[in-house]
Design a protein that fits this description.
Length: 160
């Protein structure tokens, strides 16, 4: 697989990661499609193992998201800036404290946004609870799953 193909697959993965945070964009499906395209182009067995793992993790994520309350982030007061803070916090947490840091990073991103918006600590904590109840857990589940798949893809590309 050439460098341009890897770059294109990486860009589609990045678009999928950003698409998780944008309403109406099938982010997780874009991530899976990028891994599928990479596996079809790369003849190594590790590519197929990553694709099988990505498929299994995405299926498990969909089952978990089905059990969670439906997304009603807009009704809970969430806007694009909040999702940007949450996504940035999740990415920073995922990088700084590999894998498990995504969850506290997401929550910290939501808290920072709400603290800047509302000003008080208690109100910000209550707003974080409201955002997470109104669909934040669903977004976090999908984003975390896509981050795991992207990390597996990066690992397979560089060390596989």
């Amino acid at each position: 697989m050439g460098a341009w193909d890897l770059l294109l697959a990486g860009l589609v993965l990045l678009l999928g990661l950003c698409g998780v945070l944008a309403p109406g964009v099938p982010g997780s499906w874009l991530v899976w499609a990028a891994v599928l395209w990479w596996a079809l182009k790369d003849p190594r067995a590790v590519a197929w193992w990553v694709l099988a793992g990505a498929t299994g993790v995405l299926f498990l994520s969909q089952v978990v998201r089905w059990a969670l309350p439906p997304r009603r982030l807009r009704a809970g007061g969430a806007d694009a800036r909040l999702l940007a803070y949450a996504g940035g916090g999740s990415f920073a947490g995922f990088v700084l404290l590999p894998v498990i840091g995504a969850v506290p990073g997401f929550l910290a991103g939501v808290y920072v946004h709400e603290r800047l918006r509302l000003g008080r600590r208690g109100e910000a904590k209550a707003a974080v609870r409201m955002v997470m109840r109104s669909g934040g857990w669903s977004v976090l589940t999908e984003l975390f799953t896509c981050q795991l798949i992207a990390a597996a893809w990066i690992g397979a590309v560089f060390w596989g």
